[in-house]
Amino acid sequence: MTRYDDDLRLAHVIADQVDALTMSRFKAQDLVVETKPDLTPVSDADRAAEELVRSQLSRTRPRDAVHGEELPDTGHGPRVWVVDPIDGTKNFVRGVPVWATLISLMDGDRVVVGLVSAPALNRRWWAATGSGAWTGRSLASASRMQVSQVRRLQDASLSYSSLTGWEETGRLDGFLGLTRQVWRTRAYGDFWSHVLVAEGAVDLSCEPELALHDMAALVPIVTEAGGRFTSISGQDGPFGGSALVSNGHLHNAALQLIDPLDPEPHPV
Description:
The chain is α+β, with helices and mostly antiparallel strands. 33% of the residues lie in helices and 26% in strands.
């Protein structure tokens, strides 16, 4: 099996540089915030962070392609770096510390490296295929992650981002049905919901509308921790436009509740 440890180390080096940049702009009085065509906010820090990642990758991995949130795709080939410079921009611009830079590497149709760096929380989460999932402040200060062993929805803790997307996609009833079955719900939101599943602190997380750059880095972190990452219709990986993340034991039960539009039984 191909190892991606060098790529993971590179992701950490780049994240160190991006963290310094984003923290210098966090709560800055002169932060410039604009509205994109999809009506979501973008700050000068988002664009500067992605430009920094791309600059480093062009120097260290010139043959690799890059797909990001804010700038056009570059390069071509089987190896594609996927970048979300600031996941949680709305939090970032309001001074809420729950935001992160997401860096991942795809080799073909597999996400083989994922790193989530949340410098305002002083935390980082990462994984590479076959190397396990880890969290800590750095490679030198890390602990291995494992999902929970909760096996009943009635005992499960569920995290989500908001109700709006569920309503807009016509799946609010299914989502509310899931919330009524679980033990506890909290809206930790964005990347944090999903890395908490990998840590075993939360058992389920879900979001109805997501792009590839929102999800790619999270997939190996969750799966290397023993969990499962699919769309809300059961498609494995970050390609289904939504996310249901679990410890694995609860996944099919949650799918049946959250996706009542799908008449077909979900695969085990």
